[in-house]
Amino acid sequence: MAEQEPGAGRSPEARLLVVDDEPNIRELLSASLRYSGFEVIAASDGHEAVALAERVRPDLVVLDVMLPDLDGFAVAKRLRAGGRRMPVVFLTARDGTDDKVHGLGVGDDYVTKPFSLEEVVARIRAVLRRTRGDLELPSRLQVADLVLDEEAHHVERAGQPVRLSPTEFKLLHYFMSNAGRVVSKAQILDHVWNYDFGGDAGVVESYVSYLRRKIDNVEPRLIHTLRGVGYVLRAPRH
Amino acid sequence: MAEQEPGAGRSPEARLLVVDDEPNIRELLSASLRYSGFEVIAASDGHEAVALAERVRPDLVVLDVMLPDLDGFAVAKRLRAGGRRMPVVFLTARDGTDDKVHGLGVGDDYVTKPFSLEEVVARIRAVLRRTRGDLELPSRLQVADLVLDEEAHHVERAGQPVRLSPTEFKLLHYFMSNAGRVVSKAQILDHVWNYDFGGDAGVVESYVSYLRRKIDNVEPRLIHTLRGVGYVLRAPRH
DNA sequence: ACCCAGGCTCAGCCGTCGCTGAGCGTTTGC
DNA sequence: GCAAACGCTCAGCGACGGCTGAGCCTGGGT
Protein backbone atom coordinates (compact mmCIF):
# COMPACT_ATOMS: atom_id res chain seq x y z
CA MET A 1 0.00 0.00 0.00
CA ALA A 2 1.30 3.40 -0.85
CA GLU A 3 2.90 5.19 2.00
CA GLN A 4 5.17 8.16 2.28
CA GLU A 5 6.32 10.32 -0.57
CA PRO A 6 8.25 13.52 -1.01
CA GLY A 7 6.62 16.77 -1.88
CA ALA A 8 4.57 17.33 1.26
CA GLY A 9 4.53 20.88 2.40
CA ARG A 10 6.13 22.45 -0.64
CA SER A 11 3.96 24.42 -2.98
CA PRO A 12 2.56 22.19 -5.69
CA GLU A 13 4.72 21.44 -8.68
CA ALA A 14 1.85 21.79 -11.09
CA ARG A 15 -1.90 21.45 -11.33
CA LEU A 16 -3.11 18.25 -12.93
CA LEU A 17 -6.49 17.10 -14.15
CA VAL A 18 -6.96 13.34 -13.97
CA VAL A 19 -9.69 11.86 -16.15
CA ASP A 20 -10.71 8.23 -15.83
CA ASP A 21 -14.08 6.58 -15.43
CA GLU A 22 -12.91 3.71 -13.22
CA PRO A 23 -13.03 5.01 -9.65
CA ASN A 24 -10.21 2.73 -8.51
CA ILE A 25 -7.78 4.00 -11.09
CA ARG A 26 -8.91 7.56 -10.66
CA GLU A 27 -8.36 7.43 -6.93
CA LEU A 28 -5.12 5.56 -7.23
CA LEU A 29 -3.76 8.20 -9.54
CA SER A 30 -5.16 11.18 -7.69
CA ALA A 31 -3.83 10.11 -4.35
CA SER A 32 -0.49 9.07 -5.65
CA LEU A 33 0.05 12.22 -7.67
CA ARG A 34 -0.98 14.36 -4.75
CA TYR A 35 1.61 12.67 -2.60
CA SER A 36 4.14 13.26 -5.31
CA GLY A 37 3.59 16.96 -4.88
CA PHE A 38 1.02 17.83 -7.53
CA GLU A 39 -2.24 19.60 -7.10
CA VAL A 40 -4.86 17.23 -8.46
CA ILE A 41 -8.43 17.50 -9.56
CA ALA A 42 -10.32 14.60 -11.08
CA ALA A 43 -13.11 13.99 -13.54
CA SER A 44 -14.87 10.77 -14.48
CA ASP A 45 -16.01 11.49 -18.02
CA GLY A 46 -15.20 13.64 -20.99
CA HIS A 47 -17.75 16.37 -20.55
CA GLU A 48 -16.92 16.86 -16.92
CA ALA A 49 -13.27 17.00 -17.90
CA VAL A 50 -13.82 19.70 -20.48
CA ALA A 51 -15.95 21.73 -18.12
CA LEU A 52 -13.49 21.40 -15.26
CA ALA A 53 -10.50 22.24 -17.40
CA GLU A 54 -12.32 25.36 -18.50
CA ARG A 55 -12.63 26.49 -14.93
CA VAL A 56 -9.42 25.42 -13.24
CA ARG A 57 -6.92 25.65 -16.11
CA PRO A 58 -4.66 22.71 -15.26
CA ASP A 59 -1.06 22.62 -16.41
CA LEU A 60 -1.46 19.11 -17.73
CA VAL A 61 -4.20 16.54 -18.22
CA VAL A 62 -3.92 12.82 -17.56
CA LEU A 63 -6.53 11.37 -19.83
CA ASP A 64 -7.91 7.88 -20.26
CA VAL A 65 -8.52 7.12 -23.92
CA MET A 66 -11.52 4.93 -23.17
CA LEU A 67 -14.25 7.07 -21.68
CA PRO A 68 -17.96 6.36 -21.49
CA ASP A 69 -19.02 9.44 -23.39
CA LEU A 70 -16.29 11.07 -25.42
CA ASP A 71 -13.22 9.51 -26.96
CA GLY A 72 -10.10 10.67 -25.20
CA PHE A 73 -8.77 12.26 -28.33
CA ALA A 74 -12.00 14.17 -28.80
CA VAL A 75 -11.59 15.48 -25.28
CA ALA A 76 -8.05 16.54 -26.06
CA LYS A 77 -9.27 18.35 -29.14
CA ARG A 78 -11.83 20.27 -27.15
CA LEU A 79 -9.31 21.07 -24.46
CA ARG A 80 -7.19 22.68 -27.08
CA ALA A 81 -10.00 24.51 -28.77
CA GLY A 82 -8.97 28.01 -29.68
CA GLY A 83 -5.36 27.02 -30.13
CA ARG A 84 -4.77 26.83 -26.43
CA ARG A 85 -1.83 24.71 -25.41
CA MET A 86 -2.73 21.82 -23.18
CA PRO A 87 -0.26 18.98 -22.70
CA VAL A 88 -1.84 15.57 -22.29
CA VAL A 89 -0.61 12.25 -21.01
CA PHE A 90 -2.92 9.58 -22.39
CA LEU A 91 -3.74 6.34 -20.65
CA THR A 92 -4.28 3.61 -23.19
CA ALA A 93 -4.96 -0.11 -23.12
CA ARG A 94 -2.11 -2.31 -24.14
CA ASP A 95 -4.09 -4.10 -26.84
CA GLY A 96 -4.03 -3.25 -30.52
CA THR A 97 -5.70 0.12 -30.16
CA ASP A 98 -2.38 1.80 -29.48
CA ASP A 99 -2.30 2.63 -33.16
CA LYS A 100 -4.59 5.50 -32.40
CA VAL A 101 -1.86 6.97 -30.28
CA HIS A 102 -0.20 8.09 -33.46
CA GLY A 103 -2.58 11.03 -33.18
CA LEU A 104 -0.51 12.48 -30.36
CA GLY A 105 0.04 16.18 -30.35
CA VAL A 106 3.54 17.45 -29.96
CA GLY A 107 4.59 17.43 -26.38
CA ASP A 108 2.02 14.82 -25.47
CA ASP A 109 2.88 11.38 -24.27
CA TYR A 110 1.10 8.21 -23.32
CA VAL A 111 1.27 5.36 -20.84
CA THR A 112 -0.22 1.94 -21.40
CA LYS A 113 -2.54 0.32 -18.89
CA PRO A 114 -1.82 -1.34 -16.63
CA PHE A 115 0.87 1.12 -15.63
CA SER A 116 3.11 1.57 -12.65
CA LEU A 117 2.98 4.77 -10.65
CA GLU A 118 6.65 5.40 -11.31
CA GLU A 119 5.96 5.36 -15.00
CA VAL A 120 3.09 7.81 -14.86
CA VAL A 121 4.92 10.27 -12.65
CA ALA A 122 7.97 10.05 -14.88
CA ARG A 123 5.97 10.77 -18.01
CA ILE A 124 4.18 13.67 -16.42
CA ARG A 125 7.41 15.22 -15.26
CA ALA A 126 8.99 14.70 -18.64
CA VAL A 127 6.13 16.40 -20.45
CA LEU A 128 6.10 19.28 -18.00
CA ARG A 129 9.80 19.70 -18.37
CA ARG A 130 9.44 19.88 -22.13
CA THR A 131 6.38 22.06 -22.38
CA ARG A 132 7.44 24.69 -19.92
CA GLY A 133 11.20 24.38 -20.05
CA ASP A 134 10.96 23.50 -16.41
CA LEU A 135 14.62 22.90 -15.72
CA GLU A 136 13.88 22.85 -12.06
CA LEU A 137 12.79 19.26 -12.32
CA PRO A 138 16.14 17.59 -12.24
CA SER A 139 16.40 14.78 -14.73
CA ARG A 140 19.61 13.73 -13.04
CA LEU A 141 19.66 11.90 -9.75
CA GLN A 142 22.86 11.32 -7.88
CA VAL A 143 23.80 9.46 -4.71
CA ALA A 144 27.51 9.21 -4.00
CA ASP A 145 29.13 8.06 -7.25
CA LEU A 146 25.92 6.57 -8.57
CA VAL A 147 24.27 8.68 -11.25
CA LEU A 148 20.98 8.19 -13.02
CA ASP A 149 20.03 10.45 -15.89
CA GLU A 150 16.37 10.11 -16.61
CA GLU A 151 16.29 11.89 -19.92
CA ALA A 152 19.24 10.00 -21.30
CA HIS A 153 18.03 6.83 -19.60
CA HIS A 154 21.57 6.38 -18.53
CA VAL A 155 23.07 4.97 -15.36
CA GLU A 156 26.61 4.90 -14.18
CA ARG A 157 28.44 3.84 -11.06
CA ALA A 158 31.93 5.12 -10.30
CA GLY A 159 32.13 6.55 -13.79
CA GLN A 160 31.33 3.23 -15.43
CA PRO A 161 28.14 3.05 -17.50
CA VAL A 162 25.81 0.23 -16.52
CA ARG A 163 23.18 -1.52 -18.60
CA LEU A 164 19.91 -2.06 -16.79
CA SER A 165 16.74 -3.78 -17.87
CA PRO A 166 13.59 -1.62 -17.79
CA THR A 167 12.44 -3.02 -14.47
CA GLU A 168 15.86 -2.64 -12.93
CA PHE A 169 15.93 0.95 -14.12
CA LYS A 170 12.54 1.75 -12.63
CA LEU A 171 13.48 0.13 -9.36
CA LEU A 172 16.71 2.07 -9.15
CA HIS A 173 14.92 5.25 -10.04
CA TYR A 174 12.47 4.67 -7.24
CA PHE A 175 15.27 4.03 -4.80
CA MET A 176 17.10 7.14 -5.86
CA SER A 177 14.10 9.43 -5.66
CA ASN A 178 13.63 8.15 -2.14
CA ALA A 179 17.27 8.21 -1.14
CA GLY A 180 17.72 8.16 2.60
CA ARG A 181 14.15 7.07 3.18
CA VAL A 182 13.23 3.50 3.99
CA VAL A 183 10.88 1.92 1.50
CA SER A 184 9.07 -1.33 2.23
CA LYS A 185 8.70 -4.09 -0.28
CA ALA A 186 4.99 -3.33 -0.41
CA GLN A 187 5.70 0.28 -1.31
CA ILE A 188 8.09 -0.84 -4.01
CA LEU A 189 5.52 -3.19 -5.46
CA ASP A 190 2.95 -0.41 -5.48
CA HIS A 191 5.17 2.10 -7.22
CA VAL A 192 7.43 0.16 -9.50
CA TRP A 193 5.24 -2.71 -10.60
CA ASN A 194 2.01 -2.40 -12.54
CA TYR A 195 -1.02 -1.89 -10.39
CA ASP A 196 -2.52 -5.21 -11.43
CA PHE A 197 0.53 -7.25 -10.55
CA GLY A 198 -0.69 -10.20 -8.52
CA GLY A 199 2.55 -11.83 -7.43
CA ASP A 200 4.27 -11.63 -4.10
CA ALA A 201 7.12 -9.55 -2.80
CA GLY A 202 9.70 -12.18 -3.67
CA VAL A 203 10.17 -10.55 -7.01
CA VAL A 204 11.38 -7.41 -5.33
CA GLU A 205 14.10 -9.38 -3.60
CA SER A 206 15.15 -10.79 -6.93
CA TYR A 207 15.42 -7.41 -8.55
CA VAL A 208 17.24 -5.91 -5.63
CA SER A 209 19.65 -8.77 -6.04
CA TYR A 210 20.12 -7.99 -9.75
CA LEU A 211 20.58 -4.32 -9.00
CA ARG A 212 23.19 -4.98 -6.39
CA ARG A 213 25.11 -7.14 -8.77
CA LYS A 214 25.11 -4.42 -11.39
CA ILE A 215 25.45 -1.17 -9.50
CA ASP A 216 26.37 -2.03 -5.94
CA ASN A 217 29.29 -4.39 -6.31
CA VAL A 218 31.84 -1.79 -5.23
CA GLU A 219 32.40 0.11 -2.03
CA PRO A 220 30.71 1.97 -0.62
CA ARG A 221 27.56 -0.13 -0.62
CA LEU A 222 24.51 2.00 -1.22
CA ILE A 223 21.57 -0.40 -1.03
CA HIS A 224 21.01 -1.52 2.52
CA THR A 225 18.57 -4.14 3.75
CA LEU A 226 16.65 -3.42 6.92
CA ARG A 227 15.34 -6.77 8.01
CA GLY A 228 11.63 -6.86 8.51
CA VAL A 229 11.34 -3.27 7.37
CA GLY A 230 12.52 -2.68 3.83
CA TYR A 231 15.43 -1.16 1.94
CA VAL A 232 17.27 2.17 1.94
CA LEU A 233 19.49 3.65 -0.68
CA ARG A 234 21.98 5.90 1.00
CA ALA A 235 25.57 6.90 1.08
CA PRO A 236 27.25 5.84 4.28
CA ARG A 237 28.18 8.24 7.07
CA HIS A 238 25.73 11.13 6.34
CA MET B 1 -3.05 -3.14 30.37
CA ALA B 2 -2.69 0.36 29.05
CA GLU B 3 -2.28 3.05 31.64
CA GLN B 4 -1.64 6.72 31.28
CA GLU B 5 -0.58 8.37 28.08
CA PRO B 6 0.04 11.82 26.72
CA GLY B 7 -2.62 13.83 25.03
CA ALA B 8 -5.00 14.07 27.94
CA GLY B 9 -6.49 17.50 28.28
CA ARG B 10 -5.46 18.80 24.89
CA SER B 11 -8.08 18.98 22.22
CA PRO B 12 -8.27 15.72 20.31
CA GLU B 13 -5.90 15.19 17.43
CA ALA B 14 -8.58 13.71 15.27
CA ARG B 15 -11.81 11.77 15.41
CA LEU B 16 -11.50 8.06 14.75
CA LEU B 17 -14.03 5.35 14.11
CA VAL B 18 -12.87 1.91 15.24
CA VAL B 19 -14.64 -1.06 13.68
CA ASP B 20 -14.04 -4.58 14.95
CA ASP B 21 -16.40 -7.32 16.00
CA GLU B 22 -14.18 -8.79 18.70
CA PRO B 23 -14.98 -6.80 21.84
CA ASN B 24 -11.50 -7.31 23.26
CA ILE B 25 -9.75 -5.83 20.30
CA ARG B 26 -12.30 -3.08 19.95
CA GLU B 27 -11.89 -2.02 23.54
CA LEU B 28 -8.14 -2.37 23.49
CA LEU B 29 -7.94 -0.10 20.50
CA SER B 30 -10.52 2.39 21.68
CA ALA B 31 -8.96 2.83 25.09
CA SER B 32 -5.45 3.04 23.81
CA LEU B 33 -6.26 5.47 21.04
CA ARG B 34 -8.16 7.66 23.45
CA TYR B 35 -5.16 7.82 25.71
CA SER B 36 -3.07 8.70 22.69
CA GLY B 37 -5.15 11.81 22.28
CA PHE B 38 -7.75 10.81 19.73
CA GLU B 39 -11.47 11.09 19.99
CA VAL B 40 -12.78 7.59 19.45
CA ILE B 41 -16.10 6.05 18.59
CA ALA B 42 -16.54 2.35 17.95
CA ALA B 43 -18.73 0.03 15.95
CA SER B 44 -18.92 -3.75 15.94
CA ASP B 45 -20.12 -4.48 12.44
CA GLY B 46 -20.20 -3.02 8.99
CA HIS B 47 -23.68 -1.60 8.93
CA GLU B 48 -23.27 0.09 12.27
CA ALA B 49 -19.98 1.50 11.00
CA VAL B 50 -21.54 2.98 7.89
CA ALA B 51 -24.43 4.45 9.84
CA LEU B 52 -22.15 5.92 12.50
CA ALA B 53 -19.73 7.35 9.99
CA GLU B 54 -22.67 9.03 8.32
CA ARG B 55 -23.56 10.82 11.53
CA VAL B 56 -20.25 11.63 13.16
CA ARG B 57 -17.98 12.12 10.16
CA PRO B 58 -14.73 10.72 11.51
CA ASP B 59 -11.39 11.86 10.14
CA LEU B 60 -10.21 8.29 9.76
CA VAL B 61 -11.58 4.78 10.13
CA VAL B 62 -9.76 1.83 11.66
CA LEU B 63 -11.42 -1.10 10.00
CA ASP B 64 -11.16 -4.83 10.53
CA VAL B 65 -11.26 -6.67 7.22
CA MET B 66 -13.09 -9.65 8.71
CA LEU B 67 -16.50 -8.55 9.86
CA PRO B 68 -19.60 -10.66 10.50
CA ASP B 69 -21.80 -8.86 8.00
CA LEU B 70 -19.90 -6.84 5.42
CA ASP B 71 -16.42 -7.33 4.07
CA GLY B 72 -14.14 -4.56 5.25
CA PHE B 73 -13.50 -3.42 1.72
CA ALA B 74 -17.22 -3.20 1.08
CA VAL B 75 -17.52 -1.00 4.13
CA ALA B 76 -14.74 1.21 2.83
CA LYS B 77 -16.51 1.50 -0.47
CA ARG B 78 -19.72 2.61 1.20
CA LEU B 79 -17.87 5.04 3.39
CA ARG B 80 -16.54 6.66 0.29
CA ALA B 81 -19.80 6.64 -1.58
CA GLY B 82 -20.33 9.88 -3.37
CA GLY B 83 -16.64 10.44 -3.85
CA ARG B 84 -16.16 11.46 -0.25
CA ARG B 85 -12.65 11.08 1.01
CA MET B 86 -12.29 8.75 3.95
CA PRO B 87 -8.89 7.40 4.88
CA VAL B 88 -8.89 3.90 6.24
CA VAL B 89 -6.40 1.84 8.21
CA PHE B 90 -7.29 -1.81 7.68
CA LEU B 91 -6.70 -4.55 10.19
CA THR B 92 -5.92 -7.77 8.40
CA ALA B 93 -4.95 -11.28 9.39
CA ARG B 94 -1.35 -12.23 8.81
CA ASP B 95 -2.14 -15.31 6.70
CA GLY B 96 -1.71 -15.44 2.96
CA THR B 97 -4.61 -13.10 2.25
CA ASP B 98 -2.39 -10.03 2.52
CA ASP B 99 -2.39 -9.98 -1.24
CA LYS B 100 -5.91 -8.63 -1.22
CA VAL B 101 -4.71 -5.53 0.53
CA HIS B 102 -2.28 -4.76 -2.20
CA GLY B 103 -3.68 -2.52 -4.86
CA LEU B 104 -6.68 -1.08 -3.06
CA GLY B 105 -7.19 2.51 -2.06
CA VAL B 106 -4.07 4.59 -1.99
CA GLY B 107 -3.71 6.84 0.98
CA ASP B 108 -4.94 3.98 3.06
CA ASP B 109 -2.73 1.71 5.02
CA TYR B 110 -3.02 -1.55 6.83
CA VAL B 111 -1.73 -3.33 9.91
CA THR B 112 -1.60 -7.08 10.28
CA LYS B 113 -3.15 -8.83 13.25
CA PRO B 114 -1.88 -9.43 15.78
CA PHE B 115 -0.50 -5.93 15.97
CA SER B 116 1.21 -3.86 18.61
CA LEU B 117 -0.32 -0.58 19.69
CA GLU B 118 2.81 1.30 18.70
CA GLU B 119 2.32 0.07 15.18
CA VAL B 120 -1.32 1.05 14.95
CA VAL B 121 -0.80 4.52 16.33
CA ALA B 122 2.14 5.05 14.01
CA ARG B 123 0.12 4.05 10.96
CA ILE B 124 -2.81 6.21 11.95
CA ARG B 125 -0.59 9.23 12.45
CA ALA B 126 1.16 8.60 9.15
CA VAL B 127 -2.10 8.41 7.23
CA LEU B 128 -3.48 11.51 8.90
CA ARG B 129 -0.28 13.37 8.18
CA ARG B 130 -0.58 12.48 4.53
CA THR B 131 -4.26 13.00 3.97
CA ARG B 132 -4.42 16.40 5.53
CA GLY B 133 -1.02 17.78 4.67
CA ASP B 134 -0.62 17.81 8.42
CA LEU B 135 2.91 18.71 7.92
CA GLU B 136 5.81 17.31 9.61
CA LEU B 137 5.17 16.02 12.96
CA PRO B 138 8.89 15.65 13.03
CA SER B 139 9.97 12.16 12.11
CA ARG B 140 13.03 12.78 14.25
CA LEU B 141 13.16 12.14 17.97
CA GLN B 142 16.06 13.31 20.07
CA VAL B 143 17.11 12.94 23.69
CA ALA B 144 20.54 14.28 24.55
CA ASP B 145 22.89 12.90 21.91
CA LEU B 146 20.59 10.03 21.08
CA VAL B 147 18.76 10.51 17.80
CA LEU B 148 16.10 8.37 16.16
CA ASP B 149 14.98 9.20 12.65
CA GLU B 150 11.80 7.38 11.87
CA GLU B 151 11.72 8.00 8.15
CA ALA B 152 15.24 6.81 7.61
CA HIS B 153 14.79 4.17 10.29
CA HIS B 154 18.11 5.35 11.57
CA VAL B 155 19.48 5.58 15.09
CA GLU B 156 22.65 7.16 16.33
CA ARG B 157 24.24 7.81 19.66
CA ALA B 158 26.94 10.42 20.05
CA GLY B 159 27.14 10.72 16.29
CA GLN B 160 27.74 7.01 15.80
CA PRO B 161 25.15 5.09 13.80
CA VAL B 162 23.76 2.06 15.61
CA ARG B 163 22.18 -1.05 14.15
CA LEU B 164 19.03 -2.20 15.90
CA SER B 165 16.80 -5.19 15.31
CA PRO B 166 13.13 -4.40 14.62
CA THR B 167 12.08 -5.09 18.19
CA GLU B 168 14.92 -3.07 19.62
CA PHE B 169 13.94 -0.23 17.34
CA LYS B 170 10.31 -0.34 18.40
CA LEU B 171 11.27 -0.43 22.04
CA LEU B 172 13.60 2.50 21.70
CA HIS B 173 10.98 4.40 19.78
CA TYR B 174 8.52 3.81 22.59
CA PHE B 175 11.02 5.01 25.15
CA MET B 176 11.81 8.10 23.17
CA SER B 177 8.23 9.08 22.52
CA ASN B 178 7.75 8.80 26.27
CA ALA B 179 10.99 10.46 27.25
CA GLY B 180 10.95 11.71 30.80
CA ARG B 181 7.92 9.61 31.66
CA VAL B 182 8.18 6.37 33.58
CA VAL B 183 6.84 3.37 31.71
CA SER B 184 6.15 0.06 33.41
CA LYS B 185 7.11 -3.25 31.95
CA ALA B 186 3.42 -4.00 31.54
CA GLN B 187 2.95 -0.84 29.52
CA ILE B 188 5.90 -1.73 27.38
CA LEU B 189 4.55 -5.20 26.75
CA ASP B 190 1.18 -3.70 25.84
CA HIS B 191 2.56 -1.15 23.43
CA VAL B 192 5.60 -2.67 21.86
CA TRP B 193 4.69 -6.34 21.72
CA ASN B 194 1.77 -7.83 19.84
CA TYR B 195 -1.40 -8.01 21.86
CA ASP B 196 -1.43 -11.80 21.75
CA PHE B 197 2.03 -12.18 23.20
CA GLY B 198 1.76 -14.74 25.94
CA GLY B 199 5.17 -14.57 27.54
CA ASP B 200 6.21 -12.73 30.65
CA ALA B 201 7.92 -9.44 31.26
CA GLY B 202 11.35 -11.05 31.29
CA VAL B 203 11.62 -10.39 27.62
CA VAL B 204 11.42 -6.68 28.26
CA GLU B 205 14.38 -6.91 30.57
CA SER B 206 16.26 -8.76 27.88
CA TYR B 207 15.57 -6.14 25.29
CA VAL B 208 16.35 -3.29 27.62
CA SER B 209 19.62 -5.04 28.18
CA TYR B 210 20.30 -5.28 24.45
CA LEU B 211 19.37 -1.64 24.00
CA ARG B 212 21.69 -0.54 26.76
CA ARG B 213 24.53 -2.40 25.22
CA LYS B 214 23.95 -0.78 21.86
CA ILE B 215 22.90 2.75 22.63
CA ASP B 216 23.57 3.39 26.28
CA ASN B 217 27.13 2.27 26.75
CA VAL B 218 28.49 5.81 27.02
CA GLU B 219 27.94 8.63 29.47
CA PRO B 220 25.54 10.07 30.18
CA ARG B 221 23.32 7.05 30.77
CA LEU B 222 19.85 7.63 29.44
CA ILE B 223 17.88 4.50 30.33
CA HIS B 224 17.25 4.36 34.06
CA THR B 225 15.69 1.53 36.02
CA LEU B 226 13.20 2.37 38.71
CA ARG B 227 13.03 -0.77 40.73
CA GLY B 228 9.55 -2.12 41.15
CA VAL B 229 8.18 0.62 38.91
CA GLY B 230 9.62 0.58 35.44
CA TYR B 231 12.04 2.47 33.24
CA VAL B 232 12.62 6.06 32.20
CA LEU B 233 14.53 7.41 29.29
CA ARG B 234 15.85 10.82 30.17
CA ALA B 235 18.87 13.02 30.03
CA PRO B 236 20.33 13.57 33.48
CA ARG B 237 19.05 16.65 35.28
CA HIS B 238 21.40 19.55 35.65
C1' DA C 1 11.74 -20.38 -37.16
C1' DC C 2 14.96 -19.44 -34.15
C1' DC C 3 17.25 -17.15 -30.42
C1' DC C 4 17.82 -14.24 -26.67
C1' DA C 5 16.65 -10.88 -23.16
C1' DG C 6 13.66 -9.92 -19.72
C1' DG C 7 10.11 -11.09 -16.18
C1' DC C 8 8.83 -14.04 -12.84
C1' DT C 9 8.64 -18.21 -9.62
C1' DC C 10 10.63 -21.51 -6.77
C1' DA C 11 13.40 -23.72 -3.38
C1' DG C 12 17.44 -24.26 -0.57
C1' DC C 13 20.70 -22.01 2.21
C1' DC C 14 22.19 -18.91 5.64
C1' DG C 15 22.05 -15.35 8.94
C1' DT C 16 19.55 -13.08 12.18
C1' DC C 17 15.90 -12.39 15.38
C1' DG C 18 12.86 -13.39 19.16
C1' DC C 19 12.23 -15.72 23.10
C1' DT C 20 13.26 -18.69 26.99
C1' DG C 21 15.62 -20.43 31.03
C1' DA C 22 19.32 -20.41 34.13
C1' DG C 23 22.66 -18.19 36.89
C1' DC C 24 24.21 -14.35 39.27
C1' DG C 25 24.21 -9.77 41.36
C1' DT C 26 21.63 -6.27 43.85
C1' DT C 27 18.06 -4.35 46.44
C1' DT C 28 14.31 -4.61 49.64
C1' DG C 29 11.68 -6.16 53.49
C1' DC C 30 11.52 -8.58 57.69
C1' DG D 1 21.75 -10.01 58.65
C1' DC D 2 19.13 -13.03 55.93
C1' DA D 3 15.95 -14.48 52.58
C1' DA D 4 13.09 -13.40 48.95
C1' DA D 5 12.14 -10.60 45.16
C1' DC D 6 13.78 -8.19 41.46
C1' DG D 7 16.66 -7.17 37.65
C1' DC D 8 20.56 -8.16 34.41
C1' DT D 9 23.03 -10.94 31.25
C1' DC D 10 24.17 -14.82 28.52
C1' DA D 11 23.74 -18.97 25.93
C1' DG D 12 20.94 -21.73 23.06
C1' DC D 13 16.97 -23.02 20.21
C1' DG D 14 13.55 -22.69 16.71
C1' DA D 15 11.77 -20.07 13.24
C1' DC D 16 11.54 -16.73 9.90
C1' DG D 17 13.19 -13.39 6.44
C1' DG D 18 16.07 -12.45 2.81
C1' DC D 19 19.41 -13.79 -0.91
C1' DT D 20 20.49 -16.12 -4.92
C1' DG D 21 20.93 -19.66 -8.56
C1' DA D 22 18.16 -22.42 -11.57
C1' DG D 23 14.58 -22.78 -14.58
C1' DC D 24 10.18 -21.63 -17.14
C1' DC D 25 7.63 -18.60 -20.11
C1' DT D 26 6.82 -14.92 -23.06
C1' DG D 27 7.58 -11.53 -26.65
C1' DG D 28 10.43 -9.21 -29.81
C1' DG D 29 14.12 -9.05 -32.98
C1' DT D 30 16.86 -11.27 -36.61
Automatic annotation (TrEMBL), chains A, B:
GO terms for molecular function: phosphorelay response regulator activity; transcription cis-regulatory region binding. Gene3D superfamilies: 3.40.50.2300, 6.10.250.690, Winged helix-like DNA-binding domain superfamily/Winged helix DNA-binding domain. Pfam families: Response_reg, Trans_reg_C. One of its GO terms (biological process) is regulation of DNA-templated transcription. CDD domains: trans_reg_C. InterPro entries: CheY-like_superfamily (IPR011006), OmpR/PhoB-type_DNA-bd (IPR001867), Sig_transdc_resp-reg_receiver (IPR001789), WalR-like (IPR039420), WH-like_DNA-bd_sf (IPR036388). One of its GO terms (cellular component) is cytosol. Residues 138-235 bind DNA. Residues 15-128 form the Response regulatory domain. Residues 138-235 form the OmpR/PhoB-type domain. This is DNA-binding response regulator. It comes from Spongiactinospora gelatinilytica.
